[in-house]
């Protein structure tokens, strides 16, 4: 398999960051961090640009744009507006962050609900990353860039009661890894699949969407309900890291003049759970090793 991200990445002193979902949470924390760094430029996007009022209006290094990742037209319009605004337009860092979680029982999920989840978290990520890749690829000097696709611990390990959220993030992981391997190394485009654990944002509050309740899954002994109760307890106890911690580490990865990791689990819990998942897969390989080699028979 061809290796990815083999060379150290150097963040330009006048780098332009393009961030989706800047109205709250991780996107907002990244926007706030980028504008605090002298020389860095920011394209901050949100479905409703009035949610970006925390960013200055009179700073040439900041461009605020409307962008709904579910709309191809909206994405293309935002990229055009950014290119028109900055004289020598380039995107150095994309943070593909917009997303939400659909929670609930699979058997109670409507077609619209499941499609909306994939449309935002997966196809939205694809639309924005593809446009950013074109801009990075066409840079004259192989300036390249970094594409942070915000996946999740939920993009590697799956838990009950949020199957379509997992499907969307597993899709982000598979697509990002494959697309990263399509690129010529000389283009210097570095994908980083970010896998946070719990982050204290609107994610578990205002942004979360729920399917209807399926009566056959509604018992306290059902795995989905048990997990939901455990998560609720953790949230009440203050579990999770602040979004600024995610922003700091993404800035570090982009700016430390080192190779960009293809996968970046964030929080020790996410690291442990991903390790458990991978160990389970190794054990499974052992368990089925008599059945696996059908090509050798
Ligand atoms: N918080 C966690 O524990 C956690 C853990 C792992 C991964 N993540 C991932 O981190 C990312 C950011 O979430 P967050 O925790 O910062 O939650 P958040 O505070 O709810 O922020 C989500 C952002 O996504 C935006 N968004 C949703 N749908 C959109 C669309 N169609 N087009 C453009 N923007 C849209 C929201 O904008 P509006 O204001 O317009 O709704 C909001 O700005 C998500 O991809 C999430 O899956 C979060």
Q: Would you kindly provide a written description of the structure presented here, covering whatever features stand out?
A:
The chain is α/β, with parallel strands linked by helices and 297 residues long. The chain is 40% helix and 14% strand. The protein has 7 helices and 9 strands. The strands form 2 sheets. A 7-stranded parallel β-sheet has the order 3-2-1-4-6-7-9, sandwiched between helices. Strands 5-8 form a two-stranded parallel ribbon. The chain is globular. 38% of the residues are buried. NADP nicotinamide-adenine-dinucleotide phosphate binds next to α1 and α3.
Could you give the topology of this structure?
Layout (H helix, E strand, L loop, with lengths): L15 E4 L5 H11 L5 E6 L15 E5 L5 H14 L7 E4 L5 E2 L7 H27 L7 E6 L12 H20 L6 E8 L12 E2 L12 H14 L6 H13 L7 E4 L1 H20 L10
Helix pairs in contact: 1-6, 2-3, 3-4
This protein binds NADP nicotinamide-adenine-dinucleotide phosphate.
Pfam families: adh_short
Keywords: Oxidoreductase
Family: Belongs to the short-chain dehydrogenases/reductases (SDR) family.
Secondary-structure element series: EHEEHEEHEHEEHHEH
Structural class: alpha/beta
By CATH reckoning, the class would read Alpha Beta
N- to C-terminal distance: 26 Å
State the domain count: 1
Compounds present? NADP nicotinamide-adenine-dinucleotide phosphate
Total of helices: 7
Q: What is the residue-mean pLDDT, rounded to a whole number?
A: 97
Q: Could you say what the CATH topology is called?
A: Rossmann fold
What overall form do the CA principal axes indicate?
A: globular
Fraction of residues in helices?
Answer: 40-55%
Q: Which second-level CATH architecture applies?
A: 3-Layer(aba) Sandwich
CATH H-tier superfamily: NAD(P)-binding Rossmann-like Domain
With strands numbered from the N-terminus, the spatial order across the biggest sheet is: 3-2-1-4-6-7-9
Total beta strands: 9
Low-confidence stretches: none
Main sheet: strands, sense, barrel: 7 strands, parallel
Radius of gyration: 20 Å
């Amino acid at each position: 398999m061809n290796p990815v991200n083999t060379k150290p990445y150097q963040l330009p002193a006048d780098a332009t960051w393009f961030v989706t979902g800047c109205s709250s949470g991780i996107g907002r924390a990244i926007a706030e961090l980028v504008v605090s760094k002298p020389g860095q430029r920011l394209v901050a996007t949100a479905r409703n640009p009035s949610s970006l009022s925390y960013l200055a209006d009179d700073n040439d290094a900041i461009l605020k744009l409307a962008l709904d990742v579910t709309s191809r037209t909206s994405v293309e319009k935002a990229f055009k507006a950014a290119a028109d605004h900055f004289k020598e337009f380039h995107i150095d860092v994309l943070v593909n962050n917009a997303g939400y979680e659909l929670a609930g029982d699979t058997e109670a999920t409507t077609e619209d609900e499941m499609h909306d989840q994939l449309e935002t978290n997966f196809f939205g990520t694809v639309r924005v990353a593809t446009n950013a890749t074109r801009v990075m690829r066409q840079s004259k000097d192989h300036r390249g860039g970094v594409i942070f696709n915000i996946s999740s611990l939920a993009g590697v390990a799956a838990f009950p009661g949020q199957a379509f959220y997992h499907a969307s993030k597993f899709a982000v992981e598979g697509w990002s890894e494959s697309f990263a391997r399509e690129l010529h190394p000389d283009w210097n485009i570095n994908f980083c699949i970010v896998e946070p654990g719990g982050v204290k944002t609107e994610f578990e509050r205002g942004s979360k969407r729920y399917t209807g309740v399926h009566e056959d899954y509604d018992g306290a002994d059902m795995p989905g309900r048990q997990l939901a109760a455990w998560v609720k307890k953790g949230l009440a106890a203050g579990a999770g890291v602040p979004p600024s911690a995610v922003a700091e580490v993404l800035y570090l990865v982009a700016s430390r003049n080192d190779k960009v990791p293809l996968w970046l689990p964030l929080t020790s819990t996410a690291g442990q759970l991903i390790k458990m998942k991978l160990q389970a897969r190794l054990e499974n390989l052992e368990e089925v090793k008599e059945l696996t080699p059908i090509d050798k028979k």
